[in-house]
Structure formats: C-alpha cells, structure tokens
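Catalogue entry: protein
Contents: sequence, fold tokens
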Amino acid sequence: MKKRLPSKTSNFTTLIDENSFYVDKTVFIKELESISDRYLFFLRPRRFGKSLLLSMLGHYYGIQHAERFDDLFGGYFIGKPHNQTPLRNSYHILNFNFSGIKTDKVDDVFLHFTNEISGAVKLFITKYNLFTDVETAEIFSHNDANSILRSLFFRLQGLQPGIKVYLFIDEYDHFTNELLAFNREHFSEIVSQNGWMRKFFEVIKQFMGEGVIDRFFATGVTPVTLDSMTSGFNVSKNLTLDARFHNMAGFTESEVQALITATGSETVISEIDSLVGDIREWYNGSKFSVETVQKLFNPQILINFLDYFYAFGKYPTEMYDPSVASDYLKIKNQLSILKPEEANEVISEIIENEKIKDRITLQYNLESRFSRTDLISLLFYNGLLTINGAEGSIMEYVIPNYVVKTMYWEFLRQSFIEENLSGFNTDDLMEIFDEMRFDGKVNKLVKYIAELMDKISNRDLLGFRESNLKMLFLPVLNFANIYKINSEVEINRKYIDLYLKLQPEYRGKYSFVLELKYLKKSEIEKYNSIKSEGIEQLKDYMTLKGLDKDKNLNAFLILFLNNKPEIVEID
C-alpha cells in the first residue's frame, strides 16, 4: 500500500495514523541516550523538521503512549525489540512551544510568555491527573510564568512515589530572535542577569539539579539567546555542530529517494533520477558540520514541491517556497545590527563570490559590538549560508542552493535597486523579458541596466567594478523566475559570467550566455583588447560540451565603459 506524502503536521501520532511516510529519525534515540549529556540544545533553520523530531521523542518517552508503542514505532528502527532502550515510555512529558509568542507590542511579551507557560502547565496537570483541585489552584495563584513553573516543580518534588520529567522546548529562541531583529534593547533586558527569560532558565536549572527534570531537549534557530544566558544555564550541551547528529533533522538524498519511492506514482518513480537531480540543485546543500560530507534538504520546502508535482505533473512556476520570503524582513533587520557599510560588504562578497570565509560565533556577547563574524554566523544559523569546509578555525561558507541564491538576489533588489535607485518598474521588466525570450535580444535589458547606472553617483562609480555590474543584472534577471540563472557556472574549468536558461513553464524559445565587462573612463586604452578578449571567451564557451546548445542559445558580450554600454552578439 502506497504511503501518503507527509502533511505539514508536526504531530507524530497524526503522521502515523494518516499513513504518511515518516523519514525514520528514531535511530537517533539510542545515539542521544549514549552520550553523557542529558540537557540538550539542537539548532537548525526554520522548516527543518525540529517540531516533528520533538513530537517523535515525546511519543517514545511519554508514559501515556505506552499502550500504542507498537502501532507508533513498530515499523521503525526503535520499534525493533533489540533497539529499544530502558527509558522507553518512562517519563512525564512537559512541552513548551515559544513559536506563537507575539512580539508586536514589547510591553506585552512577558504576558504572552506567561500565557504560554500557564497553558502548557495546565495541559500537563490535566494529562497526568497529578494534583487535587486545591493543589492546582495554588500553582496558578501566581501571576507570572517563573513563579507558576517553580510552584509546579515544588509540587512534583513532593510526590510519592516520585516522577521523572522530560522537558521539551520547541523554538526556544523564536520570540527572542524577533526582538533581536526589531528591538535589541528589549531583547537585552529580558536576557540580562536580572531579566525574566534568564530567570526562567535558572528555574529549570534548579530543578534539574534537584532531580525533578531528568532530561531536557530544546530546539531553536540561533544560539543568541542561549549564549546570552550562559551563566544562568551552563549545564546544557549544544549538539548543533556535532556530526553524529547532523541529519537528526533534515533529509539526506537517500531519504528523499525513499520518500519519493514510497509516495510517488509509477510514472514519478520511473523519472526519479532526473527529478532528484533537479531538486538537488534547487533545495539541497545544507551542511552543519565540518566532519560530514552529507548535505541536507529542507523537509518542508521539499514536501511542498512534491505536493505540487504529484498533483499537477509539472514543476511549480515558483520553485522557491513562498514561506522562504517571510524570512526577508527579519534578516534585513538582523543585518541592520551591523554598520550599514559592513553589512553591505558582507552581502556583496557573498553574492559576488557565492562563498565567504570567517570564524563561527558560538557565543554571542551582546555587550560587545556586533561583528562581521557574528553576522556571517547568523546567516549560517538561519540557513542562508552553509559550511563547505574549514582550515583550522576558519570556516568556508557557501550559499547552499538555488532557492537561497534567489533570496539574496531578492534582497539585493529590494535593498539596493528599489530603495536607493527607485528604478524597478515591473512593466519595463516584462518588456525586457518578452524581447529576450521571443526575439533572442538583450537590448532592452542592457538599456535598463544603463539607466540604473546613470542614477549611481560619479563618486560611487569611482569604486565600481565588474562584479558590481553583475550585481545589477542578477536581481533584474531574477524577476518572476522566467530564467534559471547560473552565475559563474563552471564547465570544464571555464567560468561563464551568466548562463540563462528559459524556464519550461514560460513561452518563448531563447536562452543566453552573457559575458560582462566593465571599464572606467581612465581605462579606455584597454577597451579594444578587453573587447577582443571577451569575444574569444564567448566563442570558447559556445564550444563547451556542458552547455545545452541549440540554435536558440544566444551569446552576447556586454561591455560598459563607465555607464555607456556596447553589445556584441557572437555568431
């Protein structure tokens, strides 16, 4: 019987009961119990399967799920008798989820936080029926989160026989990351030595020491909140960069193939190699440890793609997931923590080279100035950069996949062209792309770029270089995903500036190879030699076997002398 493609639920029971395919992460239960640390943090970008991971662990360890163990886990690694652990179904599970805490009014954040803690504690008490009505009323006689939590743990401590609590916190840093991006002063207040967020974790630490909380597992995106509270909660282990737990969330390529095989039609399965090859380029590439070669897919984005592909038999027009775009404003505000010129330099280097080198920030010190290293690390934790390798303590980060590249180009469009140049008119862009895809010409495109160049001051042009020219082309060409953009694509050790493939969802017939050259007025004597060099480069490119060459692949050399362009078509 075919399995269903997983829904967007993060509830393990729902996934199993609806006969959905579950990518088996239960093998990590034994691995987690094999290490000496029992209080754990695990960071991954959004939509990476962290909530489902916690739900699976809660169902394995929760005493209330013992009767359904075989139904829930019988088909997976941990369900086999020789793989089960002594801690199976032995805990009372207390769950907190901070993803819904609102930050739009900073004065109300503590109220929303208290409501979350209060609601979770009420659910815990009801689920396990541990106290009398009087005892329960005493716990909720307090009006702040930390007092409610402390009162609960004192009551649990007095129970005979004693119980063991496994505490899960999902998205522990969600609302604090929001505050870091939009209200850094308030963020600093709540995680400071006397801040209520630090006090919350001090309560947890206290009852870990007293044996009430036997195990603890928290997920999140960044270590900013965690590291801000180090002195108040220094008993935890951060597994984020640990290669042993690299694919505890996220899908490996073999897991993606298993998912498609289990859920796809015979037609889909017959084309699995081609399908996996395409989605590898679009969605794969996340790596969180220097000790592994495996790269991971973002589960939710991948499943959204497959859902569309299964339903309509074709790729979606927008291959990126719309939910990715929701990260844009937060990222933009996080960039603003750094000085504008420093942030722009980092983003420019990433877009220009598609890689960047620096150390990794493991502990953020908010009393010190936010640094370039901090920003690059923040982009890594948010999934916008990933580890490619390391030399000593210096990491090489790269853009993980094509979807994330489009995010940078979109950022470039909104933060530079729209805000600074006021030169992004969608009507003009459709005329540009109509000329490209139907007529095989780039005249309107180059004219548009030249108009943008005219709006750049002469002072800024003094520092302008060829890579900056490409950074004007990229966000324009990314419009509406009409062309698949390959920048600095390597074929037989040749690097093509821009290789533009018309997406199959769009009418038209022309794709392009573009070589870009830029010279300042002071370099005019080099103009003819640079032009000849560019023509020869393009002729060489058009002989490469790696290009999808046909009569509809057009090649152009585009030269700018300051802000004056020339177009040369290569036959």
